[in-house]
Amino acid sequence: MRAHWLFAKNASRYGKVSECNAFTYPQMTFVIMSQCVDIKDGRCVDVCPVDCIYEGSTMFYIHPEECIACALCETVCPVDAIRHIDDVPEQEKMYVEKNAAFFSEGNSS
Ligand code: SF4
Ligand code: SF4
Question: Which strand (E) or helix (H) includes residue 44?
């Protein structure tokens, strides 16, 4: 399943369309970036009300379609690794792609 198709379907759900990445990842709102790598303390997982944060080998990833964009995870991360997709710094943009790739490879329940 191609990532852009996965995130394009149901694009208007929750009305959380990203302006910067609206074409490629219209469903993605919050993204976990490099600061999580190898820390993985799981605080974001503990507070997520919909259990949409999944564990990878080196970091966690937020499922774009399951996330309800409540921003709770962003407030508890001790290393400021979680940002709204429109606020992801240029040097961290690769983590938007990594997040999409993680779920396009079937890593969800
Ligand atoms: S924004 Fe809310 S729903 Fe989305 S991953 Fe963070 S805690 Fe979970
Ligand atoms: S709270 Fe931050 S560092 Fe901890 S697992 Fe979540 S994203 Fe990674």
Answer: helix 43-47
Q: How does pLDDT run across 39-71, given as a tens digit for each residue?
A: 999 999 999 999 999 999 999 999 999 999 999
Query: Domain residue spans in the chain?
Result: 3-104
Beta bridge partners of 82: 32
pTM over 0.70: yes
Token look-up 């990532």 returns 3
The two tokens of residue 16 are: 């959380």
Task: Compute CA distances 93 → 34, 35, 42, 66, 83, whole Å.
Answer: 10, 13, 22, 21, 11
Q: Which CATH architecture has domain 3-104?
A: 2-Layer Sandwich (3.30)
Q: Which residues line ligand 1 (CB under 6 A)?
A: 30, 47-48, 50, 52-53, 62, 67-73
Q: What is the CA(20)–ligand 2 centre distance, in A?
A: 24
Environment class of 46 (CB within 10 Å of its CB; exposed 0-12, middle 13-18, buried 19+): exposed
